[in-house]
Amino acid sequence: MTKVELGFIGDAELVEELSLLTTQTARMRARMADIMAELERRRCTKTARARPRR
């Protein structure tokens, strides 16, 4: 959406669009955190397996 297009949209529509984008951002951040946690879990598992046992 361009700045010109935003000028033609009413306040309620802008707030609705902002709400939608905020929700999407929150979902993406949560998904990123899940992926990062899984990668960390895998890294720790590989490190633990690579260490020789005494």
From TrEMBL:
<protein>
    <submittedName>
        <fullName>Uncharacterized protein</fullName>
    </submittedName>
</protein>
